[in-house]
Design brief:
Blueprint lengths: L16 H10 L5 H21 L1
Length: 53
C-alpha cells in the first residue's frame, strides 16, 4: 500500500502580490494574473512529464 501526503502550496508560500501589481499596471483585466499563474503551473507540469520520458 502506498501512502501519500499532498501539500497545496501554490499561492500559499509564493507571494504573488508584487506580480499582481505589475500585471495590473500593464493589463486592464484583473483576471490576467490568475490566468497567467494557472498557465505557468500547467506548462511546468507538462514540461516535467515530457522530460521524464
Amino acid at each position: 500500500m502506498i501512502k501519500t501526503v499532498l501539500f497545496d502550496m501554490n499561492e500559499t508560500l509564493l507571494n504573488l502580490s508584487l506580480l499582481k501589481e505589475n500585471f495590473n499596471k500593464h493589463f486592464d483585466d484583473p483576471a490576467i494574473p490568475k490566468y497567467w499563474f494557472a498557465k505557468v503551473l500547467h506548462y511546468s507540469m507538462v514540461l516535467k512529464r515530457f522530460l521524464e520520458k
